[in-house]
Amino acid sequence: GGSADISGIRLDDVAGTQLTGYTAASDSEISGAVLPAGVKSGTYNVLVNTGVGASLPGQAKMIITTPPPAVTGLNPSYGGSGKANTITVSGTGFFGGTAEPDVSATKIGTLALSFTADGDTTLTAVIPRGATPATYDVRVTNSGGTNSTSAVRFTVYPAPSVTQIAPSTGGNDVTTTVAITGTGFFGAGKT
């Protein structure tokens, strides 16, 4: 018998993530090695260091995955097509289990939104002026994929529309009272 000569086990990720809690069960088996949470998704070599050096890259790989994000809340959950609408999106997976943003896209329908991932559970997105009136799932993409639906949907209401002014002429030397006809004067979804 002999004793283990292991000085460390790590991934070859940028951070050199160390595995802990391991036991050398035999000369050919290490058990109980713990990989901490927060490793960026990807495929990494597992390197074992002993008194005679480190194992060679490519002998064993560890694949780290990230679950797709989830959208659980929106504030506000509606806006108008006649202006840009800034919304706060609540959910999970916006940092993809790491300490830095992992979101690559945020959309309503096929419309890409500008966004900032503020934390793993919050991001801020801007729906641009002119978005097509409809109700949409908010879709967020991280390295693990895209959420399929959102628990709360965002509704874009049409901007007000002016179809007629009566009278349609007036002089600049007198006050003129006019009647304006159109749609959407009560605002978001009110009639």
Helix-strand category: mainly beta
Q: Roughly what fraction of the amino acids lie in strands?
A: over 45%
Q: Overall pLDDT, averaged? A: 92
Shape descriptor: rod-shaped
Q: Pick out the low-confidence regions.
A: none
Rg on CA atoms, Å: 28 Å
Biggest β-sheet description: 5 strands, antiparallel
Measured between the Cα atoms of the first and last residue, the distance is 85 Å
Strand tally: 20
- The sequence of SSEs as H and E is EEEEEEEEEEEEEEEEEEEE
Helix content: under 10%
Number of helices: 0
Q: Would you mind describing this structure in some detail?
A:
The chain is mostly beta strands and 191 residues long. Helices cover 0% and strands 47% of the residues. The chain contains no helices and 20 strands. The chain has strands at 6-11, 18-19, 23-26, 29-31, 42-50, 53-54, 61-64, 70-75, 78-80, 85-92, 105-108, 111-112, 114-119, 122-127, 134-136, 138-142, 145-146, 154-157, 161-166, 179-183. The strands form six sheets. Strands 1, 2, 5, 6 and 7 form a five-stranded antiparallel β-sheet that branches. It is rod-shaped and about 100 Å long. The relative contact order is 0.16. The mean pLDDT is 92.
